[in-house]
Amino acid sequence: MKVVACLARTLLLLFLTTFLSKAHGASASPSPIHGNIVSRWSSRRSLPTVIQTSASTSASASTNASRRSNVTTQEKSKPPLLSLLSADVLSAFISSALLSPLVTIIDKSVTLSAAGSMTLGSALKKNALTLISNPMKFVTSPEYVWICGLYSATYIAANTITTYCTLTSRPSSSPKLIGTTLVNIYACVSKDAAFAKMFGSCAPHSVPKRSLALFSLRDGGTIFSSFLLPQKLAAVFEVMGINHIQSLNVAQLTCPVVFQAVSAPIHLLGLDFYNRSPGELMGKTRMAASVDNYFPVVGARMLRVLPAFGIGGIGNRMLRAEMIKRIEGGL
After folding, report:
1. Is the pLDDT of residue 6 over 50?
2. Treating both helix axes as pointing N-terminal to C-terminal, what angle do 81-115 and 312-329 enclose, rounded to 10 degrees?
3. How far, CA to CA in Å, does 288 sit from each of 61, 104, 239, 293?
4. Hey, which of 5, 57, 105, 174 has its CA 20 to 30 A from 303?
5. CA gap 151, 188 in Å, rounded
6. Residues spanned by the domain of 64
7. The whole model's pTM is what?
8. Does residue 76 form part of some domain?
């Protein structure tokens, strides 16, 4: 029994010694099979990380490629500057050429009436008959060229400033107001000075600074009521439930027309300072003379500004938008 027990203890000790020896040897120098198993297990554990890293790299590359593609597409699809400027100029000239006959008739008639050469009604009738009987003579006359050039310059300034601000992603309200005001005041004051010399009651002479200042004040207000105020009024109409296009059109027609109630006496006073020098009349007498023609002139100037900055402004905006749409559609 003791022998059996001793043999059992010997076998157990031998087994434990052999097992521990193999375990130590395996940890010190793993067999190829063990190394393969460990390698596969490690690779399986790291596989999600590899896949995630690969996917992240692929997504980043795809995003960068997409961005480069978008930039390239935008650069290719951007309309050429020359084409946009051509649309700006052409829409401005067409709008001006169409509205200039009526504006020419009214401006010439108001100037003749302020000079006392004839009544406003007679002058309107005479100039309208000239347009009907001899349109070629009318559209080649100096007064028509002045009017057409005036509004072409104003619309070109407004359109090109809008294009520049759009391309550079800048707000256009302030630059448009400043640019169109400067261009319109210079062109309109020059036109009024030329009209005063052509149709005034006295021999042509230099235009007084007072007249130039009054004409500038009148035109600054007209520009504000024609290009900036309609957008603010249109926003009010939209709040009332009117859609954007209708709101903008109604505001574009309303603002410059209503402003003529303010600008008409300024215009008449400027003409009066040209026709009668500052030292000839007292202030009250001069104002009374301007007030006498107030209502007829306000009515005439409302008719004048309706095509000039109302219908003409809408026509210029719609023509320009359609031309730019066609340019972009052809890319």
Report:
1. no
2. 170
3. 79, 27, 43, 9
4. 174
5. 9
6. 2-71
7. 0.65
8. no
